[in-house]
């Protein structure tokens, strides 16, 4: 019996999943402390969960809301469509229009060329800081203006930057710092010293004061009876002592790690900027948005409330712009516009986390690589038996060079998305036996028009059609009906009662977009579902 096999499926026998080596790359910081995960991470997770994870299969009486609709929403997303204007839906959005135009202007890339492939993957790597930071101009200007003012007036102050993970806070601060130093040099101001601290790396929260002290003075000068905090407090309370010190820009990233039960360290740190002769420009960064609510009122009562700059989650258009910016240097087209758009839309609706968007793009490229390997292997097989000559294979490869199969398509991104945001519905469908998957595929085809239910007899006709097209021996109608009951028990189908089994009415209990999404990693189903 022919089987429908897809090498890329993450399913392995026994239902366990193959560990995904790239997945670890996207986790912001796995061991972040509770506050972080119970605040913004939880917010993010719950947003992802509510967006992508419907209630457990059996508990939901109504139809599951599909998180995958976007896969189908993608404008006329025919993954194998020929490249050209007809494949691109020119939308009113300027970002999307630019996306479509660049697709039409540039030649295709050649993912078989390792140099091109590695170059593109590198450009999409999170660690690759872009030379020009787009979509954060407003936030960066506010931070820069705050710092410039402090330097110009030699006035201490504090600023708190908050926003969800992957929204460019740390990256922006790095850029602002560089611009600030250049600006100070050009405008004749003394550039501040900079201390960039990642608070998560401190073994003790109060070590932060020791680090600051190390930066401005030699610790051995200090009387051992005095703590670094006391020394700093004394130093910036007396004119003579502080006058010799340069301004110090302290960038305290992952500030939430400094939170202790009484928040004393955090308060003392911010209060250092209010001492009469303080020379500190303190910038705290955290992704716990509610941290501001928790500690700002107290700081206000202590008269050291920082200015706040919030980094909002990236929108779909911003994600597209950032991805385009990273790919701008390449003189060829790498992604189908709809594929980039799908990635951006999904990530924006889940978390707006740029790390995730980058990971999904890289993962989609790996899907394309895997497709290419598959096609080369399938050419190799017959040649072993003398079926295809080297010349024929080369010719086929050459032809495919100019074929659409060279770009990263919607289906590649869809698979990458499913790895990044797995939902139990999709997992369940992907781990069903082959014939039950065919039944679901038949149901999707049957319910594509206005039809919302069908009899087992009608479903059987659609099922037989699909089996015939793949030469898979079909199950009998009684067996089909039993399989529908199993799918009913799993909450995927609803099966009514009737005098005759074949007259029982069947309805889908999951969104058809979820089925399409779950099955499109398998080429056979993908083709089948694309046919009208
Ligand atoms: N505007 C942007 N342009 C290009 N790349 C970006 C942009 N914003 C974020 N990125 C990418 O996303 C990665 C994560 O950004 P960043 O480290 O600044 O996030 P963060 O807001 O500090 O997240 P966290 O709260 O988890 O620390 C960056 O390393 C960069 O690769
Ligand atoms: Mg950060």
TrEMBL record:
Keywords: Cell cycle, Cell division, DNA replication, Nucleus
Pfam families: AAA_22, Cdc6-ORC-like_ATPase_lid, WHD_Cdc6
GO biological process, any: cell division
Native organism: Solanum chilense
Name of the protein described by the UniProt record: Cell division control protein
Domain Cdc6 C-terminal residues, every copy: 440-519
Family: Belongs to the CDC6/cdc18 family. Belongs to the disease resistance NB-LRR family.
Family annotation (PANTHER family): CELL DIVISION CONTROL PROTEIN 6 HOMOLOG (PTHR10763:SF26), CELL DIVISION CONTROL PROTEIN 6-RELATED (PTHR10763)
């Amino acid at each position: 019996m022919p089987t429908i096999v897809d090498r890329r499926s993450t399913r392995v026998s026994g239902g366990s999943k193959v560990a995904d080596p790239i997945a670890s790359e996207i986790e912001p910081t796995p061991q972040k402390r509770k506050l972080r995960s119970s605040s913004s991470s939880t917010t993010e997770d719950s947003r992802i969960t509510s967006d992508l994870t419907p209630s457990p299969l059996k508990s939901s009486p109504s139809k599951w809301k599909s998180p995958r609709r976007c896969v189908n929403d993608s404008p006329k997303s025919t993954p194998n469509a020929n490249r050209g204007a007809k494949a691109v839906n020119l939308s009113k959005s300027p970002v999307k229009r630019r996306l479509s135009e660049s697709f039409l202007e540039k030649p295709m890339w050649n993912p078989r060329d390792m140099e091109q492939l590695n170059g593109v993957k590198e450009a999409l790597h999170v660690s690759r800081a872009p030379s020009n930071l787009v979509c954060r101009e407003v936030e960066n200007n506010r931070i820069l203006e705050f710092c410039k003012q402090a330097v110009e007036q030699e006035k201490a102050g504090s600023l708190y930057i908050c926003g969800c993970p992957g929204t460019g806070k740390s990256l922006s601060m790095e850029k602002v710092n560089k611009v600030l130093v250049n600006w100070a040099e050009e405008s004749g101001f003394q550039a501040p010293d900079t201390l960039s601290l990642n608070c998560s790396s401190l073994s003790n929260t109060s070590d932060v004061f020791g680090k600051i002290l190390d930066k401005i003075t030699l610790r051995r000068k200090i009387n051992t009876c005095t703590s670094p905090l006391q020394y700093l407090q004394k130093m910036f309370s007396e004119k003579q002592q502080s006058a010799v010190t340069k301004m110090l820009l302290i960038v305290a990233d992952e500030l939430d790690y400094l939170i202790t039960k009484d928040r004393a360290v955090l308060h003392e740190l911010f209060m250092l900027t209010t001492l009469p002769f303080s020379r500190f420009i303190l910038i705290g960064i955290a992704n716990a948005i509610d941290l501001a609510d928790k500690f700002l009122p107290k700081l206000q009562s202590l008269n050291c409330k920082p200015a706040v700059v919030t980094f909002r989650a990236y929108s779909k258009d911003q994600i597209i712009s950032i991805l385009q910016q990273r790919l701008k240097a390449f003189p060829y087209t790498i992604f189908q516009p709809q594929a980039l758009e799908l990635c951006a839309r999904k990530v924006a609706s889940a978390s707006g986390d740029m790390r995730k968007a980058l990971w999904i793009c890289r993962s989609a490229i790996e899907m394309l690589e895997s497709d290419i390997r598959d096609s080369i292997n399938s050419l190799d097989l017959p040649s072993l038996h003398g079926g295809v000559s080297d010349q024929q294979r080369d010719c086929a490869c050459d032809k495919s060079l100019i074929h659409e199969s060279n770009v990263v398509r919607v289906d590649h991104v869809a698979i990458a998305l499913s790895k990044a945001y797995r939902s139990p519905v999709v997992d369940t469908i992907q781990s069903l036996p082959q014939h039950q998957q065919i039944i679901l595929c038949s149901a999707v085809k049957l319910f594509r028009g206005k039809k919302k239910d069908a009899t087992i007899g009608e479903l059987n006709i659609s099922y037989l059609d699909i089996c015939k097209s793949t030469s898979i021996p079909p199950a009998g109608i009684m067996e089909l009906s039993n399989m529908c009951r199993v799918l009913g028990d799993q909450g995927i189908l609803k099966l009514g009662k009737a005098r005759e089994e074949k007259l029982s009415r069947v309805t889908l209990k999951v969104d058809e977009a979820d089925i399409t999404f779950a099955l499109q990693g398998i080429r056979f189903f993908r083709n089948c579902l694309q046919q009208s």
